[in-house]
Amino acid sequence: xxxxxxxxxxxxxxxxxxxxxxxxxxxxxxxxxxxxxxxxxxxxxxxxxxxxxxxxxxxxxxxxxxxxxxxxxxxxxxxx
Length: 80
What we know:
Elements: H1 3-12, E1 18-20, E2 31-36, E3 39-44, E4 57-59, H2 62-79
Parallel strand pairs: 1-2
Antiparallel strand pairs: 2-3, 3-4
C-alpha cells in the first residue's frame, strides 16, 4: 500500500483519530504512524495521549506499516 492509497481509504471510509507522520502533537485514543530511522512505527495512544507500550509495531517497509495503520483505524472506528 502507498501513502496515496492509505489516504484514499481514510477519506472514503471516513476514518478518524489518527496522527499521520507526526502532523500534530499526540492526542488521546488515536492511532499514529511515524518514521524512526529506517523503520516505520505504528502505535496507539491512551486516554492521556501517551503511547501504549504494548501497541508499538515496527516495520521495515512502509507498505506493511500502512496496512497495519488502516487495520487499526478500522478497529478504532468500531470502538468509538
